[in-house]
Amino acid sequence: MAGPLATQILGDYGAEIIKIEQPGVGDDSRAWVPPAAPDGSAAYFFAINRNKKSVTLNLKHPRGKELLKALVRVGDVVIENFKPGTMEELGLGYDELREVNPRVIYCGISGFGGSGPDRERAGYDSILQGVSGLMSITGERDGRPVKAGVAIVDEITALYAHGAILAALRHRDRSGRGQKVECSLLECGVATLMNAAISYLLAGVVQGRWGSAHETVVPYQAFRARDGYLIIGVGNERLWKTFCEAIGAPEWADDPRFDSNAKRVDRREELVRLIEARLAAKSRDEWIR
Questions:
Q1: Which of 154, 227, 255, 266 is the catalytic position?
Q2: What pTM was computed for the model?
Q3: pLDDT, tens digit, for every residue of 125-148?
C-alpha cells in the first residue's frame, strides 16, 4: 500500500491522480474485506485511494502501453509499486518513459530496493517489519515479537516517497529535467529504528522489547488507574516536578532516588510500583481532570 498511500497524499495536496488498475479485478485492496462499506466495497481500499480517478489498462497489450505513454506525455509523475525490473520487462521503465517525457519524475517503490541480493523478492509490510528489526523491539518484554497495529512500514515509505517526489519536482523547476526516485520498504523500515539503531551503532546496545514503556525515559508508559489504563510521558525534569505535584507526591521531585532521569531509569520497577499505587486511588477521568 506504500504506492497508493503516497499518491493519496499528493492527491490531498491537490494533484490530479490517475490510478491504473488491472482489467477485470482492479486493485488488490478492493478484495480486502471485511470490513466493507454499505455497498460491499472494501473499506481498506477507501483508506488509501481517495482523491483519485481510476482507469484500467492491460500493460501487457500494445494498446495499453500506448495509452499509458499518452498519459505520461502530459503528466508530471509516475509512481509504480512493482518488483524491480517489472516495468522494464514491459517496456515501460524509466528509460523508456523519459523518452516520451524528459521532464517526468519516475518513482519506483519496492520491498528490498532496486539493487542488492534481495531485489527480486516481494515485500509486504509485516515481512519488512520483521526483516528491518522493527518487530524485534515491539511487544511486551517477555512476549513474542509484535507487529504494529497498522502497516507502519508502508506508511513511512509512502511519506518518504512523497517527500522525495516533491524534492524531485523542485529540482525540475530549477533544471528542467526529470529524474528517477527509488524507495524501498526495507530502507524506510530501518529508518524507523532511529534511536534503537544509533544506540547499537554507537554504543553496541541492542534494544529489547519494552511494551508501552521507553527504554531511556522514566516514567513514560501506560499505567493502571482504578478503572483502566492511562498514558503518562515525563520527558524532562520540569515535567517530573509537575507530575509529582499532580499525582499528590511533591516530595518525589527532590527525592535522591528519583531526582534525575538516569536515576529513575535505574530504579524503574520501584518507581512504577509507587506510581501505580497512587493511581489506583482514582479513576482515569478523575486523574485527567
A1: 154
A2: 0.89
A3: 999 999 999 999 999 988 888 999
